[in-house]
Amino acid sequence: MTTQAGAAGRSNVLTLKQALKAAEAGKYAIGSFSPRYTSMIAAVLAAGQEADSPLIVQISQKELIRYGITPKAFAEEFYRQLEEQQITVPVVLHLDHTKDMAVIAEAIEAGFTSVMIDASEKPFEDNVRESKEAADYAHARGVSVEAELGMIGTTDFVETETDEELYTDPDEAAEFVRLTGVDALAVSCGTAHGVYNVKQPKVDYARLEAIRALTPVHLVLHGGSGVPAGMMQQAFTLNGGGVSKVNIATDLELSLLAALGREERMTDAECRALAPDQLAAGREAVKQTVMNKMKDFVLSAGKAGCFFQ
C-alpha cells in the first residue's frame, strides 16, 4: 500500500483546513504533535484513539535532518500504524517548518496532507512570493498549507535557528493571507519553541483578536510546550474563533528521554534499535503525555465524533 493510496482510501485522514474548521467552531484546538522518532508515531496515534480526539502528527524539515528521517519513511510509518492500530479518529499528517520546495514536494508525494512553508525570516515580499508558490503547488494536489508571519522565538533551536522574536502585525497578516491564499497562519504573539527556562510565555490576546478579525484563515500557535494551560486555552475562545492549532514537540521528547533514563536525544535509528522493553516504556510515556495534552491543554479529548456527524 502506498502512502498516497492510504490517504485517499481513509475517510479519517484529513487536510489541515478540514480539521481546523471543526476545531474553530468548537472553540478548542487540535494538538499538532511531533514524535520526532518514527518509533513514537504509534504512541501519538494510540493516544488520540484512546482519548477520542482529533490530532495532527507532524515533523519539521530540521527534525528530519537532525534525527535522520525522510518524509517517505515518516509517512510510511504513519500509514502503517493507522492500519495496524485501526485508528478511526480524525488525523492529519503535517510537514512543519520547511524552507525548501523540494522537501514540500517530497512530502506531498509521500502522502502528507498538510505542509508548512516557513519564509518568515525573509522580507515581507519574499515571504509572500514563496508562500504563494507553496500554496499554489499544494492546493493543486489537494493539500493544505500553513505559513508564518512574524518570527517566533526559540529556546532549543530545533524548529528554528534564531531566538529573535518579532510579533505579527495584524494589518500585514491580512495582506499576507490575501496575497498568498494559505489555509492557516502561524503567528508570533509571545510563545517560543522549546522549553521556557528564563523567559516566560505571555500571550498577547489583543494582538490575536486583531489578527483574527482581519484574516479568514485558521490561526496557529507554535511553542506549546511549557505554556500554562489556562493561558493557552484563553486563546481558543477569542472573539471570531481564536487559535485552532497548537504545536507540541519538546514535551514529548522529554517524556521519552525521562522514561529511558537519558538526557541526550538520539537519532531515529538509535531509537528504533532500543530493546523492546525500552521502546514499550518510551511509547507509554509519550502516549500519556499526548493524552494529558488532549484532555487538559488543547481540550480536544472526546471531540472526534463531531467530525463524522
Tell me what portion of residues adopts beta-strand conformation.
5-15%
- Please state the average pLDDT score: 89
Tell me the quaternary state: single chain
How far apart the termini lie comes to 29 Å
| Number of DSSP-assigned strands | 10
Largest sheet: 8 strands, parallel, barrel
Roughly how many Å is the radius of gyration?
A: 18 Å
Largest beta sheet: strand ordering: 1-2-3-4-5-7-9-10
Q: Structural class of the helix and strand makeup?
A: alpha/beta
Shape, principal axes of CA atoms: globular
- Helical residues, percent: 40-55%
Continuous helix count: 13
Low-confidence stretches: 1-5, 153-164, 193-198
* SSE run: HHEHEHHEHEHEEHEEHEHEHHH
List keywords for this structure.
309 residues; alpha/beta; two-stranded parallel ribbon; 13 helices; 10 strands; disordered N terminus
Could you explain the architecture of this structure?
- This protein has 13 helices and ten strands.
- Helices cover 45% and strands 15% of the residues.
- The model is unreliable at 1-5, 153-164 and 193-198 (pLDDT under 50).
- With 309 residues, the chain is of the alpha/beta class.
- Helix 3 packs across helix 5, helix 5 packs parallel to helix 6 (101-110) and helix 11 (250-260) packs antiparallel against helix 13 (276-296).
- It has an eight-stranded parallel barrel, surrounded by nine helices.
- It has helices spanning 3-8, 16-26, 41-51, 61-67, 71-85, 101-110, 124-139, 170-180, 205-214, 229-234, 250-260, 268-272, 276-296, and strands at 30-33, 55-59, 91-98, 114-117, 144-149, 153-154, 184-187, 192-193, 218-221, 243-248.
